[in-house]
Amino acid sequence: MVEKITAMLGLVGVLSLLCQWIGWKVRLPAILPLLICGLFIGPGLDILKPDEIFGDLLFPIISLGVAIILFEGALTLNFKEIKNHGRMVTNLVSAGAVITWGCIATATHFLLEFQWPLATLFGALVVVTGPTVIVPMLRSIKPKTELARILRWEGIIIDPIGALLAVLVFEYISFASDPTVHVLYALGRTLATGISFGMISGYFVGYLLRNNLLPHYLKNAAVITIMLGVFVAANLSQEESGLLTVTVMGILLANMRGVGVSEILEFKETLTVLVISALFILLAARLDSQALLSLGWQGIALLAVVLFIARPLSVWCCGIGTSLSRQDKWFLSWMAPRGIVAAAVSSLFAIKLEEIGVAGAEMIVPLVFLIIIGSVVIQSITAAPWAKFLGVTKEKSQGILIFGASVFPRELAKVLQSNNVRVILADNNWDNIRLARMSNIPVYYGNPASAHALNFLDMTGIGRLLVLSPYRQLNPMVSFHYQDLFGSEKVFGLNNRDETTPRHKLSETYLQRLCLFGETVSYAKLALLMSKGGVIKSTTLTDNFNFTDFRTCYGDSALPLIYIHKGKVRIYTASEPIPNSGIVLISLLPIPAQKLAKKHHQMLLAQRDNLLNEGPLEDANIKRAKSSHYFKKIKKVVSNTVGYKGRAKKA
């Protein structure tokens, strides 16, 4: 028996990894291959039987897994971020959640004849969507930036809110089924225990983190251990209060000043991926296929209510007074796939409800899985054509993610923003991030290749990566990560190759992309040029002032960086030629280039003065001279002078 349990655990681990890889490869939510895999090896081939293999351990495994998932979701619920992401998001996670909950609960009661308490619990369970299902779909659909932000943040915020709602409804049902306990008293005690334990433990953990009372290597392990310990302690103190406790604890930590949860989130998301994968396969393997089929037309009708009534009604009511168009609202109405939180919490509650003898509890899990299967499969297949039909897909992404936020990337970002190019700066250095924020540049604090960034870094409108950081060990990892997302031709790095020993030698695939801004340009060179007074400037090149004139004016020391042609952004590399005219050229001008430009401009101004003062000119001659190609070129060159703006206007 021990060997069989070991073999099944190993099989679940291998299959979890394979399903996550398939989801990443085909750009679909990993929940879909996980679900298919669980059904295949469970009720399909009858290989995995979780109840027989794990026995009494199955309930604790599911319980602890749900606690980890809820705590991770609660850590993302920062109230400041709710305010920063629009009225529509706030409406969807508040009034919209209530509307969805009410519609689904009512339909469940009348279609499947569930008692009102059980129907209300089911409605709360399927309110949530979640970033694990939304983010992969958005990558393949590529809707407009605003719509992608709404859906992404709705999925992040609704997870802990929906789970907390389901916990409270479950507490009511469990105590209402016991005639010896006063319902309000027991529910109040559960709420008091969960909130008090959560706030005390959250404050305690926050105090430890804020005052650096834990060594760095123990922080993540300590937080997860304390969370699980508090979860168990709360359940021992008051039955079924543990889930509420970990949710309150996570929310408190997420909103506590001076407590950085980014590292904890990164660790917990790695853990959560493993927990979600294994848990979902186990839950799907427990599913009774006969119970799923027995739902019949009532189950299909309920799925139709979820897709065609509850979600559209919620979106259109929440969209009143917003700037969203009708097409935007119709697209949002078709994007609400359910995910792992609904599956995990429903399985946990179903087991508990069956233990206390609640009628109809055995139908909760099949019904939740029907909604998950229907929403994920149907919307994954149809969302992209629907978005194209409505015309809400964005054009090819022209935005730039820059890894590194030192002086040069910050100045480059400012110039790009002035030319209506979306830019995000990512860095592990807080001082660099702080200075970028002061310049109103969108930022991400942390590793942009982390699991946290995958869900929380807003990549809408971003289509290429520039690696401009000094972190030589981290740069290759970030580059390879985004080559998978954007393609190798959209990822660029600086030529920092000075490692000569074999142990430091990088792969040829990576080295081929180190051609950003030219083969001789390195991070050290850019930093040196900026420290000595270099400036980044955008110049419009036309027939009157083309790239040849640019070189004449600024010399060979001027360093072309990026050019914009008909709204499309092009990155200058060692092999990238620059068009002679019809573009906006962004370049780095070192001090020698600035001095040469001033000298050149003074010479042109003198030539202009000579032209205008050459003998007595009549008005017609002056008009002819001003309209000449030569005079237009002088005006164009003067207008591009560094430090000569006032004189250019006078000229």
Question: What does it look like?
Answer:
This protein has 651 residues and is of the alpha/beta class. The chain contains 30 helices and nine strands. The protein has helices at 2-25, 31-44, 50-54, 58-74, 79-83, 86-93, 95-112, 116-125, 131-141, 145-176, 183-210, 216-237, 242-254, 262-286, 289-293, 296-318, 326-333, 340-355, 364-390, 407-418, 430-438, 451-456, 475-486, 508-511, 523-531, 547-554, 591-613, 619-627, 629-639, 645-650; strands at 399-403, 423-427, 443-445, 462-467, 491-493, 535-541, 559-565, 568-571, 583-589. It has a five-stranded parallel sheet with strand order 3-2-1-4-5, with helices on both faces. It is elongated. The model is unreliable at 500-504 and 641-651 (pLDDT under 50).
Largest sheet: 5 strands, parallel
Oligomer: single chain
What's the N-to-C terminus distance?
92 Å
Beta fraction of the residues? 5-15%
Number of extended strands? 9
Structural class: alpha/beta
Percent helix: 55-70%
Mean pLDDT: 79
Q: Per the principal axes of the C-alpha atoms, what is the gross shape?
A: elongated
The strands making up the biggest β-sheet line up spatially as 3-2-1-4-5
Question: Number of helix segments?
Answer: 30
Low-confidence stretches: 500-504, 641-651
Query: From the alpha-carbon coordinates, what is the Rg to the nearest angstrom?
Result: 30 Å
